[in-house]
């Protein structure tokens, strides 16, 4: 319970609000900012001037509007001058990008990650990517921080990956290892891959404008980023959203977490490939192979997709009763399965979801695709700046 | 995205913050308020004066402190002068209370509710209780509003009960029916029974100080009020928290909702009584009978309690992975079962819950017991006042 803010706090809050607005929405006229932020014109002018001086935004006349009168100046984020490093550690690949303010990917690198790769072996190529890209960064730029998305449970305070069953890491000091390799990279923040992707789809993607969202990401495992009333459901230690380990089948298969019948044992990569008679394969290409075969009429592939679709609908139905969301987004390989199994998913979801809990729900695929994790990792770094633009 | 508040908004916010503080924490010295709310002494003095003039708080010298110097005045909510009507519609009973500011129950009434009772038959005794209690209300008092807790899914906007399977109501205009019976009672707000109980246990009960809480309430069905990062997980339409209809056993029994194997079919009253060989009984007394028999060594009762305990732990494990809560509170008949089945519950929860998700979890029984629903119903009415004390 806190009392109201001081005038100086209000000004700093307003600076952050304006910068966040153009960061998320892109170039915006002063007139629209006045309107959207509920501040008067002179306040918007003063805030914009401060942010311009700090090199965070720039102002310019808009393109010809065809209307009479002096046009409102357009404020845009300095995407090419203010940037973060964004890293993503996934089951099958390692990615790095330079992300400009406004969420623009300015440069990127990617390499395969063999399953079973250890932390130090993963950290090195990521650091090399950063060193490579750094060589191409113009002089007149400002580095804000580094964000890392990891397909696992991350303790934000110190960047320890507590558990990443699909990657095979337990209690690994990934943050410290990256800090050592990156040298002067300074501020480094780790987050969960599904969480950061969810926030990006929520702020500027498939769930823009929705306050209650479940973003599911599948590969070998299944994770979720959950937004309730506009905010991430993080939980006490930041480990919320582990829906892949919601047990849906008490009589099901053993899971990599040690439990049995977890949702990801029924809808993850292994389940799909096994149902399709392709248990010897693995990886995204193999999943896409089953989905393609199902679309071409292969009956075993269709069986596999139906089976997995049923279980997807089952778990989504449970989550719908718990969260009453507006949107459920299917990311990763769940996106591909959703596209061919939408009917099964919807039908099972309708059987389990209570009418009031599911009545306004929209099932969607991601708008930003796999870029969401990189943009989201960038957001982890920008967050400090957006909170207090002139200090951080 | 909103810009900062005006000075007048800050003052009103501060009035609400101070009033909410003493409403939740009871009598508090000006010195402590200064400290807790981060405002200076003269601001606290001015706010207290405004609230005193409005008849919402009173100030008095504290009891002898034994310390030298002028003691800080103590501010307390006007519990006996400012009140709401609080109603609770439950599976087996109807309750009404007059609740004073500060959450003090000043008067109360209760009657049985035969299962199958229709809306109009339930509304009438509640209205009579209010009329009765109203006759005893002193002159110099202020009525704030009426809050109603219902064991079902409620649309707050118009007070329609969308679905209350355990009560047997579907799309019933309970708010309108109550308004018609109560006559001049004015502002009326409905909420879900588990939701409002959760908020009270969170603000002043077993989960005070915890920001991530799951409050479970069981009788025939099972509902939850879920607090994430200090706020209720309401969902898009306000129907979140229907954990009783999370399917835990795909091969389980039919549920009153039309689905199969919902959590409440495994841990609700019917399951316990059936396992105990007492399928012909029903109600809370019958549940307590099984729990007592188990404590006295009756083997079939012990079997029943173990079975239900396993399934309680199972579902709690799922919720722990999804929410990473600090506290899980067992209310209603789940409280009684928890007290004899804590070992099973903990063991199954530990097997399903990921270590990071359950590492700081505390399992608890409610502090406010069944009063939570009445105090919580009162909160629905006080909420308007606390938001803007001098307007509402």
Q: How many DSSP-defined strands of chain A?
A: 16
The greatest inter-chain interface is formed by: A-B, 69 and 69 residues
Class by alpha and beta content of chain A: alpha/beta
Give the full name of the CATH homologous superfamily of the largest domain in chain A.
ATPase, nucleotide binding domain
CATH topology of the largest domain in chain A: Nucleotidyltransferase, domain 5
**Domains counted in the coordinates of chain A: how many?**
3
CATH architecture of the largest domain in chain A: 2-Layer Sandwich
Average pLDDT number of chain A: 94
Which strand-content bin applies to the residues of chain A? Answer: 15-25%
Q: For the record, what CATH class of the largest domain in chain A applies?
A: Alpha Beta
């Amino acid at each position: 319970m806190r009392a109201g803010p001081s005038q100086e706090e209000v000004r700093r809050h307003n600076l952050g609000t304006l910068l966040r607005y153009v960061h998320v929405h892109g170039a915006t006229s002063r007139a629209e900012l006045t309107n959207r932020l509920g501040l008067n014109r002179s306040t918007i002018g003063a805030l914009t001037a401060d942010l311009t001086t700090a090199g965070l935004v720039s102002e310019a006349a808009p393109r010809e509007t065809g209307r009479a009168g002096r046009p409102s100046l357009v404020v845009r984020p300095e995407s090419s001058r203010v940037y973060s490093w964004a890293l993503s550690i996934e089951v099958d690949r390692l990615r790095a990008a330079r992300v400009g303010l406004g969420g623009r990917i300015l440069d990127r690198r990617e390499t395969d990650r063999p399953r079973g790769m250890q932390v130090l072996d993963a950290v090195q190529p990521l650091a090399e990517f950063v060193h490579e890209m750094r060589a191409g960064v113009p002089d007149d730029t400002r580095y804000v921080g580094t964000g890392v998305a990891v397909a696992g449970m991350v303790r934000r305070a110190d960047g320890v990956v507590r558990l990443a069953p699909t990657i095979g890491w337990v209690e690994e000091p990934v943050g410290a290892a990256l800090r050592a390799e990156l040298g002067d990279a300074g501020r480094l923040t780790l987050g969960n891959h599904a969480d950061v992707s969810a926030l990006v789809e929520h702020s500027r993607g498939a769930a823009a404008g929705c306050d209650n969202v479940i973003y599911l990401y599948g590969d070998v495992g299944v994770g979720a980023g959950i937004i309730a009333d506009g905010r991430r459901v993080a939980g006490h230690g930041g480990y919320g959203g582990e829906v892949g380990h919601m047990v849906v089948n008490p009589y099901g298969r053993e899971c990599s977490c040690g439990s049995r019948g977890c949702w990801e044992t029924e809808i993850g990569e292994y389940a799909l490939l096994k149902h399709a008679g392709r248990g010897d394969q693995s990886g995204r290409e193999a999943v896409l192979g089953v989905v393609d075969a199902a679309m071409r009429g292969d009956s075993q592939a269709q069986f596999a997709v139906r089976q997995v679709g049923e279980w997807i609908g089952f778990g989504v139905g449970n989550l719908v009763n718990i969260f009453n969301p507006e949107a459920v987004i299917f990311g990763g390989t769940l996106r591909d399965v959703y596209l061919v199994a939408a009917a099964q998913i919807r039908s099972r979801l309708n059987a389990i979801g209570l009418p009031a809990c599911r009545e306004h729900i929209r099932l969607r695929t991601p708008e930003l695709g796999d870029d969401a994790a990189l943009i989201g990792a960038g957001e982890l770094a920008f967050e400090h700046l957006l909170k207090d633009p002139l200090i951080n």
